[in-house]
Specification:
Oligomer: heterodimer
Radius of gyration of chain A: 13 Å
Shape of chain A: globular
Largest sheet of chain A: 7 strands, mixed
Number of helices of chain A: 0
Shape of chain B: globular
Mean pLDDT of chain B: 93
Low-confidence stretches of chain A: none
Largest sheet of chain B: 6 strands, mixed
Low-confidence stretches of chain B: none
Strand content of chain A: over 45%
Distance between the termini of chain B: 41 Å
Helix content of chain A: under 10%
Order of helices and strands of chain B: EEEEEEEEEEE
Chain lengths: 114, 114
């Protein structure tokens, strides 16, 4: 595809609701990353997939956060029982290979929890 | 873990002048240093990167230098143009078993005044 796409672009949730954020990486890219970007800050790592395997979830802030990539392409980040502190932009990035390689970012999903 | 510090947080320059952004990192094992440009409402876009076996890299008006001994790297933009106005992020990465999450600085908001 032309690039990494994410949907929805904007999501407003009431505190306590569950949300699901989708990432479509560049076709054929092996590695997929999720980052969280708070307002005025740099992105912070959440989790990493190599194909369908979730190899690192050390950045997930709590057990309310869950990510999957069941067929090694599209990925979903799910947040259960959303809290106000979950408000941020959630960025997805993909890279062609494993190891050190250029990460291409999507436009992000801006989540606002009221 | 890795920590990346970025300065300045804001930078204003006159069109045609040069802009320099500096970053330091803490983990000597880091071996990949990309720079990203982020415009409002968009995801970060890679503008240049450098690996630890290289001291300097240039691409038209953009250059990056790396000093591994001092653990710092810098972005230089020459002949700045209004379209260079954006937030710039430096990042560092350690290649480890295929997992290469980027650790970002807090960003520099560059304003180019016409």
């Amino acid at each position: 595809g032309a690039g990494v796409s994410q949907s929805p672009r904007y999501k407003v949730a009431k505190r306590g609701q569950d949300v699901a954020l989708r990432c479509d990486p560049i076709s054929g890219h092996v590695s997929l990353f999720w980052y969280q970007q708070a307002l005025g800050q740099g992105p912070e790592f959440l989790t990493y997939f190599q194909n369908e395997a979730q190899l690192d979830k050390s950045g997930l802030p709590s057990d309310r956060f869950f990510a999957e990539r069941p067929e090694g392409s599209v990925s979903t980040l799910k947040i259960q029982r959303t809290q106000q502190e979950d408000s941020a932009v959630y960025l997805c990035a993909s890279s062609r290979r494993t190891g050190v390689d250029t990460q291409y970012f999507g436009p992000g999903t801006r989540l606002t929890v009221l | 873990g890795e920590n990346v510090e970025q300065h300045p947080s804001t930078l204003s320059v006159q069109e045609g002048d040069s802009a320099v952004i500096k970053c330091t990192y803490s983990d000597s094992a880091s071996n990949y240093f990309p720079w990203y440009k982020q415009e409002l409402g968009k995801g970060p876009q890679l503008i240049i990167d450098i690996r630890s076996n290289v001291g300097e890299k240039k691409d038209q008006r953009i250059a990056v230098t790396l000093n591994k001994t001092a653990k710092h790297f810098s972005l230089h933009i020459t002949e700045t143009q209004p379209e260079d106005s954006a937030v710039y992020f430096c990042a560092a990465s350690i290649s480890s078993a295929g997992n290469t999450p980027l650790v970002f600085g807090k960003g520099t908001r560059l304003s180019v005044i016409a």
